Model the fold of this input.
Amino acid sequence: MDVVLDPQMLLLLGVIALGAGFIDTLAGGGGLITLPAMLLMQVPPVQAIATNKLQGTFGTLVSTLTLLRKRQLSLDEVKAACLSSFIGAALGAVVIQFIDASALDLLVPVVLLSIALYFLLAPSAGELERKPRIGDRAYRRFVIPVIGFYDGFFGPGTGSFFSLAGVALRGRNLINATASAKAMNLASNVASLVVFVLGGKVLWTLGLVMAAGQLVGAYLGSMALIAGGAKLIRPLIVIVCFAMVGRYLYQNVWL
Done:
């Protein structure tokens, strides 16, 4: 199906992607801004998900490279986790091309609400390193591939899921968990994007315009992450998660 967007719509979606890139770098969930925006512009769902991967990959690439350059992230520490995320996402991207993504409309709000309540009701979570609740091997073999699969299958909120898993299951502080989440999210984005490109689902013009906005937003978000720390990340995660839930309820209950 051909999708035609006029220059004003392309510019608007580019600006939306800039804001989403900033928020996604800090708290995850940028896809819940860009994906509904594309659907609102009458982009077919699977093509919207595929194009969202293209523009989102640029954002996670910039934020990951910035964190590596600023020594907030070690590639050696996350490469195994990134491989697990890559494999899970590739499988998810294959499955979504045969299944209706609306099946997640009941599950995702519950998970997002749980993340928001966790950080809201456990204000000290992520301030200090704590004893892990799950071993690193089990975490890499089971938890990360599942989140990666979700990212390939649908995607929005993946950064929040990775951050929460790092804090709640591996006992990491919020800065480190969020930095690692960027690398794992990059791996899952790349894997799903490759599958969608091979399937011919990506809208290149739209995706590249939004990618330009993502590049700027992700860089600004990375600088804010380094400067602001957990005090900035925590409220954003809570706000973004509640906003996602509100968007889901509005779209699927009241409309």
Q: What stands out?
A: The CA atoms of residues 12 and 158 lie 24 Å apart.
